[in-house]
Design goal:
Blueprint lengths: L1 H15 L21 E2 L2 E2 L1 H9 L3 H5 L3 H15 L9 H27 L7 E2 H9 L7 H5 L8 H15 L6 E2 L1 H8 L8 H12 L7 E2 H8 L10 H14 L6 E2 L1 H8 L6 H13 L9 H6 L1 H4 L18
Antiparallel strand pairs: 1-2, 3-4, 5-6
Helix pairs in contact: 5-9, 5-14, 8-9, 10-13, 11-12
């Protein structure tokens, strides 16, 4: 019985690993926090806290000032890569980027091990397909074509994955090494994968397959109302975003170029902007760098900062 449960668990975990349309957020380079950094021209400290801690910000805020300062001091030692006693803008930016990407690296490591238990240098498409989609061998053709509950078909998922696999396979050897596998799993972070991100987004949202995304399709991808309930404020805000900003030529729908500007916006480095902001807030001697003392003196700015890596940085032994 226990062995059966283990096999069922493995199957479920592998099915869950199949890339599915992202219904929560499609934008590649989003701000570091759900809070606005400035509201009515006043600085919102919650932006900095959530930018550095995410969901653990509230928990970290419950610490006493002494505990906050102690933890923050240990984090500063990690950020100071060259051990010169100063935190430069580049070091702070690198740490923010590192913690932002950690969830991606952990996801890749987990899936690499699951799909490549022998830890070979690369994985072939056939190996990946058998591992992820092997359960489909016993399915009826009708089951492969339709999956109304999820809004996609397994057959389309294989086609979509194989297409993305081919683009990630930059050396054309029909197999993916770990770097290529990372780009396959997280194409939004690879420059040469940008176009496929746009194509897949269009496929997901453009329900009538006319080559454009209407306002109804745009909202329907994010929100499905129940009965006659009033739309939440964020949905009304998204309608305004579509009409005032997403639809550049004001023709009532989004074409592929407008979709690209939406999900892969022009370069703005949120990590660098946040690093500059934190230095401006804490650099008492105005030398463009931060000492541990300066950071500790402004611990309230850094409380729950993403430097704590969602509350786990101090509990890990891996090195940055």
């Amino acid at each position: 019985m226990r062995q059966t449960l283990l096999l069922v668990g493995l199957t479920v975990s592998l099915v869950a690993a199949i890339p599915k349309p992202n219904k929560t957020s499609r934008v590649k380079d989003e701000p570091l926090s759900s809070h606005k950094h400035f509201e009515n021209e006043e600085h919102n400290a919650d932006y900095d806290h959530e930018a550095f801690l995410g969901d653990e910000a509230k928990a970290f805020d419950q610490l006493s000032p002494e505990e906050s300062k102690e933890r923050l001091g240990k984090i500063v030692d990690k950020i100071d890569r060259d051990v010169d006693g100063k935190i430069s803008k580049e070091e702070l930016k690198s740490w923010i980027q590192y913690t932002q990407r950690r969830y991606i690296m952990e996801d890749v490591d987990r899936q690499w091990k699951a799909h490549n238990p022998e830890n070979k240098g690369s994985i072939t498409w056939e190996e990946y397909k058998k591992m992820v989609y092997g359960f489909m061998d016993d399915m009826e053709p009708s089951e492969l074509e339709n999956n109304a509950d999820e809004g996609f078909s397994y057959k389309d998922m294989i086609r979509r994955d194989q297409r993305r696999w081919g683009i990630a396979d930059t050396n054309g050897d029909h197999a993916l090494d770990k770097e290529e596998f990372t780009n396959f799993l997280h194409p939004e972070d690879a420059p040469h994968m940008k176009e496929i991100v746009v194509v897949e987004t269009m496929e997901d949202i453009d329900k009538d397959k006319n080559g454009f995304i209407s306002l109804e399709e745009y909202i329907g991808d994010m929100y499905r109302g129940v009965g006659h309930e009033d739309e939440p404020d964020w949905v009304r805000n998204e309608r305004e975003q579509f009409q005032n900003y997403r639809d550049k030529n004001k023709d009532g729908h989004l074409d592929p170029d407008e979709v690209k500007q939406w999900i892969i916006p022009p370069d703005f480095d949120h990590s660098e902007a946040e690093a500059k902001h934190l230095i401006q807030e804490s650099d008492s001697d105005a030398d463009g760098q931060l000492t541990k003392e300066e950071i500790i003196n402004k611990y309230d700015v850094f409380v729950g900062s993403q430097a704590t890596d969602f509350g786990e940085a101090l509990n890990r032994h891996d090195e940055f």
